[in-house]
Specification:
The protein is mainly β. It is 3% helix and 12% strand. Strands 1-2-3-4-5-6-7-8-9 form a 9-stranded parallel beta sheet, with no helix packed on it. Strand 8, helix 1 and strand 9 form a beta-alpha-beta unit.
């Protein structure tokens, strides 16, 4: 990306996927000038070798879609919480070890993809994303979920496969609109009885709810 982005103020979609070479090569970040693209609705930075995002990302307040998948990001800047119009955020396949508390400001999100990272926990603020329908957290290092996960009552799909979960909070039983709850690849041997009572038939593997 060059400073020519300064002239792109009327763009609604900017596609810069796979512009940076192979993943794992020395990382860069989008220039600060990208914050001047204030009319953007959709920003795709997939498959570059980005290691950081500039704070100016928070100026893109009209963004409804942001794809950061398959980069080398280890953190998301706090300013990500200023993108309150986002309806989907894709950050699959990075090196994220944590999520900023500001994620809770993104109350318009319906799809959140955080699979394939190094997340060890989630902030309680995740429970503020009450419009979420899809939440992908598989292939991380999660050892527990916050009780606030039970606030996400619009969830339809919840993917938690291949983590380090040994149990789920009882509040998970509140997710009555789920159609699929994937838990394979975790050291879970049983689930809280209220989870099995409310979500029976939706849990994979189903042996977790068999007495």
């Amino acid at each position: 990306m060059s400073k020519t982005v300064l002239t792109l103020l009327i763009f609604s979609t900017l596609l810069l996927a796979a512009c940076g070479g192979a993943k794992g090569t020395p990382g860069t970040q989008p220039p600060a000038e990208s914050g001047n693209l204030t009319q953007l609705n959709d920003l795709n930075l997939r498959e570059n070798h980005l290691e950081a995002l500039p704070p100016e990302i928070g100026k893109l307040i009209l963004l409804t879609g942001l794809d950061l998948s398959e980069n080398n990001l280890s953190v998301l800047p706090p300013e990500i919480g200023e993108l309150t119009s986002l309806s989907y955020l894709h950050a699959t396949g990075n090196n994220l070890s944590s999520i900023p508390q500001g994620i809770g400001n993104l109350t318009s999100l319906t799809e959140l993809y955080l699979d394939g990272n190094n997340l060890g926990d989630l902030p309680p603020e995740i429970g503020k994303l009450v419009d979420l329908n899809l939440l992908f957290l598989n292939d991380n290092s999660l050892s527990e979920l916050p009780p606030e996960i039970g606030n996400l009552t619009d969830l339809i799909l919840l993917y938690l496969s291949k983590n380090n979960l040994s149990s789920l909070p009882p509040e998970t039983s509140n997710l009555v609109n789920l159609s699929e709850l994937w838990l394979d690849g975790n050291p879970i041997t049983s689930l809280p009885p209220e989870v099995c009572a409310n979500l029976s038939g939706l849990v994979f593997p189903d042996s977790l709810c068999q007495t």
